[in-house]
Write a structure and sequence with these properties.
The protein has 7 helices and 11 strands. With 235 residues, it is α/β, with parallel strands linked by helices. Strands 1, 2, 3, 4, 5, 6, 7, 8, 9, 10 and 11 form an 11-stranded mixed sheet that branches. The longest helix has 24 residues, at 203-226. The chain is globular.
């Protein structure tokens, strides 16, 4: 029996799969065929979660969440089902699993293939994104998929990434905002208010970030609804 081990970094991503409260770093059973771990942002946390899931019986690993565009054609809500992942080296994706997921999806979703790259830090400008695209040849970037893919390769089990664009190449989370976000992606409200008062971040920037994330989450929720059987049928 295949057991899908799902790694999510942020609560807003996890809520597309389950309404249950997920303590950071704990493995939670979503059913007979899936387990999930909310790991917090970053490659080290994702690697630890993937290892725990594999040790607790996962026979395949899934990276599920949002990503940033490295291609100007990609917009918030576009779904990336990469055919490979780059994390200082090229890592494989289960193309058969990828194809099965894609066949489950409604035709109105814009689905992109190509390469997903993992960065060690959040890219906060279009220049950083363009430079990273030139180095990696990737269409999109995240912080976690590369580490999860490495664990899957080391364990000789299938790996898949499902990533939705939340920020286009020309608009990124501002550097000043990074310290106002918890590891699970939730906001530190008092710090955000302070940033607004000191004009380090504008209200229009926050509103656009919120809108783009909501658009991305809608696509993630659609994937979970239509391709649930390929994700271990979480509910």
């Amino acid at each position: 029996m295949n057991i899908v081990g799902i790694v999510v970094a942020m609560r807003i991503e996890a809520r597309c799969l389950t309404n249950r409260h997920l303590p950071i770093g704990e493995i939670i059973n979503l059913g007979n065929n899936s387990k999930i771990c909310l790991c917090g942002m970053g490659g080290n946390a994702a690697r630890e979660a993937a290892i725990k899931l594999q040790e607790e019986g996962a026979t395949s690993l899934l990276s599920f969440g949002v990503s940033g565009a490295l291609d100007s054609k990609l917009r918030p809500g576009d779904l990336l089902l990469p055919q490979s992942v780059y994390n200082e080296r090229l890592l494989p994706v289960s193309l058969a699993w990828r194809d099965r997921v894609q066949k489950c999806l409604p035709s109105n979703l814009r689905v992109i293939g190509g390469k997903l790259a993992t960065s060690k830090k959040i890219l906060t400008s279009s220049n950083e994104k363009c430079d990273f695209a030139k180095i990696t040849g990737a269409s999109a970037v995240d912080l976690e998929s590369g580490a999860i893919a490495e664990v899957a390769e080391d364990s000789d089990i299938p790996f898949l990434a499902i990533r939705v664009i939340s920020d286009p190449i020309e608009f990124s989370p501002p550097l000043a905002l990074l310290d106002a976000v918890n590891p699970d992606g939730s906001a530190k409200i008092s710090q955000i208010i302070s940033l607004l008062l000191h004009r380090s971040v504008t209200l229009s920037t926050l509103l656009r970030l919120g809108r783009d994330v909501r658009t991305a989450r809608a696509t993630l929720a659609t994937v979970a609804l239509h391709a649930g059987i390929e994700l271990g049928n979480p509910a």
